[in-house]
Amino acid sequence: MEDPLERLGSEGVSGLESSMKELSMEIDPPSKENLATAKDWRRTLDKVIPAVVVLRTTACRAFDTESAGAGSATGFVVDKRRGIILTNRHVVKPGPVVAEAMFLNRDEIPVYPIYRDPVHDFGFFRYDPGAVQFLSYEEIPLAPEAACVGLEIRVVGNDSGEKVYT
Fold this sequence. Notes:
Peptidase_S1_PA, six-stranded antiparallel beta barrel, Thrombin, subunit H, Protease Do-like 7, two-stranded antiparallel ribbon
């Protein structure tokens, strides 16, 4: 049986250590200067929480491997002008679904599935932006290029469809 270290070639363990050191330099932990403070997080949360919705869905049995039922999930507004909410793929469902979004002010509006990604875990619902009359909210823009290893994040969602928690 071949020694795994022999497969590294003439560089051996020192070559592996060198490669690992280079990789760790690329994935540096955040420095003290760029850490968000509690005040920064509170300001951000105050801005984004109104764009987070509770999604309530009811679906029939779409296929023999899927179950019928009702459930709740979290989504967030990514396009306020066109009325588009991003959520997980399983929430949008592979078959017919009746759904509504409940905003922070308890406005409940119907939403309609427009896309369910076949590979990645996301889907979109559409709603009528004019139906949200008494809530001031902003969209949460998508920025996949900003995602990186070691980035500090916060999760905002609902607890069994009742209210938004951070």
